[in-house]
């Protein structure tokens, strides 16, 4: 059993071993897609193979589409050269279910794979052909939030971007420069319509993609490297749209246990490839069963029938409400609570934390009791049902190898959105009392305890990377386990608690700092105090 077209479609062992093998005519699909491409996707990573490629496959299998998609990789070309093409653009999706079972599918909806390299005439030429095609309706992206940035951490224009600004669209070197050059080819071919759809996990993602592309259009038209009408083309939503979207699906790095399952089935050549850019890629991807994709319905040239396979199309305001529901209340705050206390209590898997009675009570209180009353129901997804799935299915999934240490990264950057927005909503409410909040302040106190870098047994641990880690640790550097002087504790941490850039609000002005300090005093009493505090507060 080898992952190639000949083996998958001629060896019945795949089906006998429980793999779903698509029944549609793949050769016909490839021929139609290459001749008249409809959907191109930038970013050949795990989330694409587990989500967008599977959506395309499901439409094909249902008879709701006759074309698949084209995948493009622009950061690490070896992903295409060493993984996609040797396997005839096939991959294996292993869905990890919360009940411990797995579902195995061969994903065969990718008609062709391309490399986003303007120095390769054949590769870039093919991409220009695709972008010049009347049939092309949408380009989707999973290139991470960083992929849309044209500047470095100091706010300075990246060298490749600066070079592309000056030299124009002929042979760009930067990622978005190359994407913009392809859009310019589409403009030159007759100002053809297209939707440019970021499906990266960041708020207002369409605006980020638009800002990046329009920067190139503006520079190129200003310096005469592009026709003067190119910028107007990019700015005309009836021709080029940049819809917002909200995506939610966890696709962790391929797990060894899944590798073993596939080996026992008889699948050969499962060895991962580590590229020269240190990308780790395997012939299979594993992912959770739950998935959400909500997209602003703004497609100037039409779109595939993705609503038939669970994608929700709506207006921009509703996409924003769904995003806020997830980030501010129903998922991300629960993750951060588990991350902070998981690290201090010595957990190494998020799923194991959901066997801990106190931590389960903590996330239930934060989600259902404190968060849900201030959620704006987006209408297309019910907030309570979303939390139900998070708490009962997604986080407890033993197959999902997510760690509190990973989620604890950049906590200082997450607190203002994940908890600050809820506090603000309570402060603005006529019917809710901010002083009724008990568990969100407990998370804040837990983060102070986490910053001490000592676990509940009194042993040192390494906090996760965070741009403000050293600054924040400075506020607790003079505090040791066993400290009983509450005035000393207050003097040490109150300046930090008043920092609205970290907490979203000044916690003293919000009336919550005293409770956070009281909790912190309990948490630092000595070894075992974290567990005792959780038991005391959560009953």
What are the main properties of this structure?
single chain, 539 residues, 6-stranded parallel beta sheet, 4-stranded mixed beta sheet, 24 helices, 47% helix, globular
What would you say about this model in short?
This protein is of the alpha/beta class and 539 residues long. The protein has 24 helices and 15 strands.
Account of the 3D structure:
This protein is α/β, with parallel strands linked by helices and 539 residues long. 47% of the residues lie in helices and 11% in strands. It has 24 helices and 15 strands. The strands form 4 sheets. It has a 6-stranded parallel beta sheet with strand order 6-3-2-7-8-9, with helices on both faces. Strands 1-5-4-13 form a 4-stranded mixed beta sheet. Helix 4 (46-62) links the parallel strand 2 and strand 3. The N and C termini lie far apart (54 Å). The mean pLDDT is 96.
Percent helix: 40-55%
Give the CA-CA distance, first to last residue.
Answer: 54 Å
Secondary-structure class: alpha/beta
Oligomer: single chain
SS strand fraction: 5-15%
Count of helical regions:
24
Can you tell me the overall shape?
A: globular
Runs with pLDDT <50, length 5+?
Answer: none
Biggest beta sheet summary: 6 strands, parallel
Overall mean pLDDT stands at 96
Strand order of the largest sheet: 6-3-2-7-8-9
- Record field, number of beta strands: 15
Rg: 25 Å
Give a topology summary.
Layout: H1 5-10, H2 13-16, E1 19-20, H3 26-35, E2 39-42, H4 46-62, E3 69-73, H5 78-84, E4 91-96, E5 102-107, E6 110-115, H6 121-132, E7 138-141, H7 159-167, H8 175-188, E8 194-198, H9 205-222, H10 230-235, E9 240-241, E10 245-248, H11 256-265, E11 273-274, E12 280-281, E13 284-288, E14 292-296, E15 312-314, H12 316-330, H13 332-345, H14 350-353, H15 357-371, H16 383-394, H17 404-407, H18 411-428, H19 439-451, H20 469-474, H21 486-497, H22 500-503, H23 513-523, H24 529-538
Parallel strand pairs: 1-5, 2-3, 2-7, 3-6, 4-13, 7-8, 8-9, 14-15
Antiparallel strand pairs: 4-5, 10-14, 11-12
Helix pairs in contact: 6-8, 8-9, 13-15, 13-19, 15-24, 19-23, 21-23
């Amino acid at each position: 059993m080898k992952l190639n077209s000949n083996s998958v479609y001629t060896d019945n062992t795949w089906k006998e071993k429980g793999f779903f093998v698509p029944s549609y005519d793949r050769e016909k699909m490839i021929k139609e897609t290459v001749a008249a491409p409809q959907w191109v996707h930038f970013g050949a990573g795990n989330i694409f193979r587990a989500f967008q490629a599977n959506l395309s496959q499901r439409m094909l299998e249902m008879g709701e589409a006759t074309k698949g998609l084209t995948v493009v990789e622009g950061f690490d070309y070896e992903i295409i050269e060493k993984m996609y093409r040797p396997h005839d653009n096939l991959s294996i999706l292993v869905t990890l279910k919360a009940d411990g079972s797995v579902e195995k599918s061969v994903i065969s909806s990718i008609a062709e794979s391309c490399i986003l390299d303007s120095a390769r005439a054949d590769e870039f030429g093919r991409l220009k052909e695709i972008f010049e095609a009347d049939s092309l309706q949408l380009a989707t992206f999973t290139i991470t939030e960083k992929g849309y940035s044209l500047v470095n951490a100091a706010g300075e224009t990246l060298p490749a971007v600066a070079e592309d600004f000056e030299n124009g669209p002929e042979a760009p070197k930067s990622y978005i420069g190359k994407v913009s050059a392809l859009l310019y080819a589409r403009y030159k071919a007759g100002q053809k319509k297209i939707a440019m759809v970021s499906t990266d996990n960041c708020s207002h993602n369409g605006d980020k993609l638009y800002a990046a592309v329009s920067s190139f259009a503006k520079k190129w038209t200003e310096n005469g490297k592009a026709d003067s009408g190119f910028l107007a083309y990019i700015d005309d939503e009836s021709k080029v749209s940049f819809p917002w979207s909200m995506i939610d699906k966890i696709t962790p790095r391929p797990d060894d246990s899944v590798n073993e399952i596939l080996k026992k089935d008889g699948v050969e050549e499962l060895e991962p490839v580590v590229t020269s850019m240190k990308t780790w890629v395997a012939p299979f991807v594993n992912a959770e069963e739950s998935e959400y994709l909500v997209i602003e319905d703004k497609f100037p040239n039409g779109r595939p029938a993705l609503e038939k396979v669970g994608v929700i199309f709506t207006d921009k305001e509703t996409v924003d409400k769904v995003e806020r529901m997830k980030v501010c209340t129903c998922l991300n705050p629960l993750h951060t609570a588990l991350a902070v206390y998981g690290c201090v209590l010595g957990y190494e898997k998020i799923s194991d934390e959901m066997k801990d009675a106190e931590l389960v009570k903590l996330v239930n209180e934060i989600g259902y009791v404190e968060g849900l009353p201030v959620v704006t129901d987006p209408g297309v997804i019910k907030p309570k049902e979303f939390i139900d799935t998070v708490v009962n299915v997604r986080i407890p999934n033993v197959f999902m190898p997510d760690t509190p240490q990973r989620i604890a990264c950049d906590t200082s950057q997450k607190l203002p959105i994940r908890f600050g927005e809820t506090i603000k909503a309570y402060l603005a409410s006529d019917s809710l009392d901010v002083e009724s909040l008990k568990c969100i302040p407990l998370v804040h106190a837990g983060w102070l305890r986490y910053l001490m870098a000592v676990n509940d047994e009194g042993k040192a641990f390494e906090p996760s990377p965070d741009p403000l880690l050293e600054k924040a640790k400075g506020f607790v550097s003079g505090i040791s386990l066993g400290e009983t002087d509450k005035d000393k504790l207050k003097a040490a941490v109150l300046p930090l608690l008043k920092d609205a850039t970290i907490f979203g609000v000044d916690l003293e002005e919000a009336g919550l700092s005293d409770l956070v300090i009281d909790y912190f005093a309990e948490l630092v009493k000595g070894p075992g105090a974290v567990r005792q505090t959780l038991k005391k507060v959560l009953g």
